[in-house]
Design a protein that fits this description.
By secondary structure, the protein is an alpha/beta fold. The chain folds into two domains: about 180 residues, P-loop containing nucleotide triphosphate hydrolases (Rossmann fold), CATH 3.40.50.300; about 70 residues, no CATH class. Helices cover about 35% and strands about 25% of the residues. It contains nine helices and ten strands. The chain has a six-stranded mixed β-sheet, with helices on both faces. The longest helix has 16 residues. The radius of gyration is 18 Å and the shape is globular. It starts with a strand and ends in a 16-residue tail after the last helix.
């Protein structure tokens, strides 16, 4: 469903992502971890078409993101780390706008909007202008918009930012249900406990290189440490290449 084929991205002489090869399968929830400046945000932006790879190819459901971006985007839903809305639209109007962008028929749109309002409990504020929304309300609306066209692949960049505990539970339950239905989820997060709880596999990126790829159990075997948390494993793995030994370009924040 998602393929990175020897992908690199450079900013001048600096490589934010260096020769990344990775496949994420149908129905898999994959979590990309790494310290600030590791290359996670650049990887996500290339995956959703906001940046072009300097080298290599990215494919979504078989469609090359550079050669067939429209076809690739039809299969993608994206929740960025900072929700981006139109302040003078209501939540409902924003959802209709997103549906129109994907060319969804009106009778399908009506049903899908009603479903997402229910899933994310938007009833109380969906007809208010989004300029009045709290961060958590905005994040719930962005989730609803990302799932509106029923994508095959969902890309999440720090998805739990601003969500209260109930909203976090709603999102977790929904992600579990979506993967059971066959959706592929690619998630970047600093929340290690959530990655340990939810991810089928994790990748740990350090300064543009994928230092580990596999399950948490396989990471424990590789590190020769049993009965310890993902946090401790992660800290030991990322300490191999300290962040102070060079820095990533300012474009890369995550």
């Amino acid at each position: 469903m998602i393929e990175f084929d020897h992908v690199s991205r450079s900013y001048g002489s600096k490589r934010a992502v260096d020769d990344l090869s990775l496949a994420v399968l149908r129905g898999e929830l994959f979590a990309l971890l790494g310290p600030n400046g590791a290359g996670k945000t650049t990887t996500i932006k290339m995956l959703v078409g906001l940046l072009r790879a300097s080298h290599g190819a990215i494919r979504v459901c078989g469609h090359d993101m550079s050669r067939s971006p429209r076809e690739a985007h039809l299969h993608l839903g994206y929740v960025p780390d900072e929700p981006c809305l139109y302040d003078k639209l209501t939540g409902r109007e924003f959802l209709w706008f997103i549906a129109d962008m994907f060319g969804m028929p009106r009778h399908v749109t009506q049903r899908r909007i009603a479903d997402e309002i229910e899933h994310f409990e938007l009833f109380e504020f969906v007809d208010d202008l989004t300029e009045r929304y709290s961060l958590g309300m905005k994040q719930r609306l962005v989730f609803a918009a990302a799932l509106l066209h029923d994508p095959s692949v969902l890309v999440l960049d720090e998805p739990m930012v601003g969500l209260d505990p109930r909203s976090v539970r709603i999102v977790k339950d929904l992600l579990h249900e979506k993967t059971r239905q066959g959706m592929t989820i690619f998630m970047s997060t600093h929340t290690l406990a959530m990655a340990e709880e939810m991810a089928d596999r994790i990748g740990v990126m350090v300064r543009g290189h994928l230092r580990f790829l596999g399950t948490v159990g396989e990471l424990r075997e590789q590190m020769a440490i049993e009965n310890t948390s993902l946090e401790q494993l992660y800290l030991q793995l990322t300490a191999v290449l300290p962040e102070s030994e060079g820095s990533s370009p300012a474009h890369e924040r995550g």
